[in-house]
């Protein structure tokens, strides 16, 4: 454990920030899974709707720098390609 007051504070802040970032990453993964589930179900209308909702979630998390902007673009691109490939 840290002995200096400022380092104790930084340790407290790190725990709080880690919890916040973890919840945002979880939100991202849930959004991606929901689109994949809709695509697997074969419902194109629902998949399109969840894709547009997930796109905003992915972008907001990239804006907060939880994930890199190129990673966000890759997720969106792969989901869009899967959506386009639906029969």
Description:
The structure is a single chain. This protein is elongated. It has a single domain, classed as Up-down Bundle (Methane Monooxygenase Hydroxylase, Chain G, domain 1). It is an all-alpha fold. The protein contains 3 helices and no strands. Helix 2 (44-63) runs antiparallel to helix 3. Helices cover 84% and strands 0% of the residues. The mean pLDDT is 96.
Q: Which key phrases capture this entry?
A:
Methane Monooxygenase Hydroxylase, Chain G, domain 1, mainly alpha, 87 residues
Distance N to C terminus = 57 Å
What is the CATH T-level topology? Answer: Methane Monooxygenase Hydroxylase, Chain G, domain 1
Proportion of residues in β-strands: under 5%
Strand tally, please? Answer: 0
What is the CATH H-level superfamily? Ribosomal protein S20
Level of helix content? over 70%
- Indicate the CATH architecture: Up-down Bundle
Q: Which spans have pLDDT < 50 for at least 5 consecutive residues?
A: none
Number of helices: 3
- Rg over CA atoms, rounded to whole Å, is 17 Å
Task: State the CATH class.
Answer: Mainly Alpha
Major β-sheet annotation: none
Global structural class: mainly alpha
Shape, per Cα inertia axes: elongated
The overall pLDDT, averaged over residues, is 96
Q: What is the chain-wise order of helices and strands? A: HHH
Q: What's the number of structural domains?
A: 1
């Amino acid at each position: 454990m840290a002995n200096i007051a400022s380092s104790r504070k930084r340790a407290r802040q790190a725990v709080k920030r880690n919890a916040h970032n973890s919840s945002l990453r979880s939100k991202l993964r849930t959004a991606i899974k929901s689109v994949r589930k809709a695509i697997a179900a074969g419902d194109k209308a629902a998949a399109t709707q969840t894709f547009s909702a997930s796109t905003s979630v992915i972008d907001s998390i990239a804006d907060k720098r939880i994930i890199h902007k190129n990673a966000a673009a890759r997720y969106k691109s792969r989901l869009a390609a899967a959506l386009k490939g639906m029969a």
